[in-house]
């Protein structure tokens, strides 16, 4: 069963473009790109470095440590050294709050 976790007020994400949800077992980065929400595990699959804050171009995030690139829409690897895709999550705005769904 999917459980929705509150991340931040929708206005904050719209203003900043990025928010991170810290859970006991993982951190999830949520991006607002031209009004569309994308949520991915905030860990580079190459070496475990944090992705949030890395360069973002369109729907592509680049790991600030070793330049692995990922498509935020699908989690797919676009450039090495990573070879494992990112885990993605559904995201929504509910009653003015950004939420991430975890199954």
Textual characterization of the structure:
With 103 residues, this protein is mostly beta strands. The chain has a single domain (3-102), classed as Rieske [2Fe-2S] iron-sulphur domain (Rieske Iron-sulfur Protein). The protein contains one helix and eleven strands. Strand 10 (91-94) and strand 11 (97-102) form a beta hairpin. The longest helix has 7 residues, at 10-16. The mean pLDDT is 96.
- Average pLDDT metric: 96
Strand order of the largest sheet: 2-3-4-9
Annotation field: number of helices: 1
What is the CATH T-level topology? Rieske Iron-sulfur Protein
Rg value: 13 Å
Structural class: mainly beta
Rough outline: globular
- CATH classification class: Mainly Beta
GO molecular function, one term: metal ion binding
Keywords: 2Fe-2S, Iron, Iron-sulfur, Metal-binding
Protein name: Rieske (2Fe-2S) domain-containing protein
Pfam family, one: Rieske
């Amino acid at each position: 069963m999917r459980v929705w976790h509150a991340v931040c007020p929708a206005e904050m994400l719209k203003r900043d473009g990025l928010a991170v949800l810290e859970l006991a077992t993982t951190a999830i980065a949520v991006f607002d790109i031209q009004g569309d929400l994308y949520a991915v595990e905030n860990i580079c699959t190459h070496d475990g470095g944090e992705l949030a804050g890395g360069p973002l171009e369109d729907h592509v995030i680049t790991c600030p440590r070793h330049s692995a690139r990922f498509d935020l829409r699908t989690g797919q690897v676009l450039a090495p050294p990573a070879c494992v895709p990112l885990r993605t999550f559904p995201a929504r705005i509910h009653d003015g709050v950004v939420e991430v769904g975890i199954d």
